[in-house]
Amino acid sequence: MSQDAENEPAAAKKKFTETRIVTVVGASGALGSAIVRALLERGAGVRAVVRATSNRTKLESLGVTDYVVADLNDRTSLQRALTAEPRAEAVIASAAGFTAHSARTKGDNSRTDTKGYQNLVDAAKNAGVPRVILISILECDKATGVPHFHQKLLTEEYLAKKRQPYLALRAGAFLDRTRDIVAPKVRKGVFPEWVPGVALSMIYTPDLAGYAAQAALDVPASALNQSVDVCWNVPVTGPQLAAAFTRALGRPVVAKPAIPPLLFAVLPLLARFVPSLRDSNAVLAWIRKGGYVSRDTRKQKDLFGEPPTIDDAVARYCRDKGLVKPTAA
After folding, report:
1. Is the residue at 216 inside a domain?
2. Is residue 299, in this structure, part of any structural domain at all?
3. What's phi and psi for 316, nearest 5 deg?
4. What is the pLDDT of residue 178?
């Protein structure tokens, strides 16, 4: 527990203890902070596990006060985080070495996403954590040639091997990203299509965050120890998304390549000489083969209800990003 919490009056401590606590690893990231928001909206208490260099501004604005500084590559700090009192009833793991923050801090992406996650699983098992909710990646079991996708599968397998109760949420491609380029482009009438002509199973960050919160708090223990695809009800192409934005905004939006065709063509060659591009090149090559598509949304429906439709997700995205004026109550 944080130092501030230790100094609270007894009545406040009792109320805090009675709150359902969920530990969020990677809480300061774009997805992590959305998960924190979803948990708080459900009345849960959040213990935010962050790195010493993490920016806590967004979390503080949400009212988070319980922080533990830890690193996936530091087993001792993880054990301290997961044995903090009052004990959490779930851990949501949304941290990733494959991030801009890791690049800025010169983190070892591969080590974080492999050995680091094994350290987290070991710490959870040792601490007796009732469930770990892993943010995984759609079809990661088939993307053996994509490093940061395959690393998620390795973590799923390690959770099973260690018999740590878990639920892996295999998320589709994000409509929004950490650096969201969609909204600025759509304002100009363009939807940026990453891989022209290829359908993708997609998801909107607040929806994934909501599923993670549900998985931590509401999914019965009998439904644990499996992987669940989480995405929209059908795969979509760039033109289909552009059409959905057209309907939501009431003005034309057209799909155009996000990556210039020439750059797309030379990326495989560049990736041979620029290590940082190799994973991105592998991702694009895999998507072009139709790999980023859910084969079964029945588990998602059973656990979380009907998957969002493209029009529903796009309409909410437009409202959230201020692309349309909010309707009067």
Report:
1. yes
2. yes
3. -70, -40
4. 64
pLDDT for 95 equals 84
Encode burial over 235-252: b for 16+ CB neighbours within 10 A, e otherwise. bbbbeebbbbbbebbeee
Dihedral pair phi/psi, residue 168, rounded to 5°: -100, 120
Write down the pTM of the prediction.
Answer: 0.88
Ramachandran area for residue 290 (φ above 0: left; ψ -120 to 50: alpha; else beta): left
pLDDT the model gives residue 274:
79
Cis before 260? omega within 30: no
The structural domain count of the chain equals: 1
DSSP3 helix / strand / coil % (the chain, rounded to 5): 50, 15, 35
Question: Does some domain include residue 151?
Answer: yes
| pLDDT the model gives residue 129 | 97
- Identify which of 200, 213, 144, 147 has the alpha carbon closest to the alpha carbon of residue 172: 200
Q: CA-CA distance, 40 to 59, in Å (whole number)?
A: 11
Q: What is the pLDDT of residue 110?
A: 73
d(CA 102, CA 10): 40
Task: Give me the pLDDT at residue 228, please.
Answer: 97
- Domain containing residue 139: CATH number: 3.40.50.720
d(CA 49, CA 69): 6
What is the Cα–Cα distance from 156 to 208, expressed in whole angstroms?
18
The segments of the chain whose pLDDT lies below 70 read 1-18, 97-109, 178, 264, 326-329
**Per-residue model confidence (pLDDT) at position 54:** 86
Q: What is the extent of the structural domain holding 52?
A: 3-171+203-231+294-307
13 domain residue, yes or no = yes
pLDDT at 66: 95
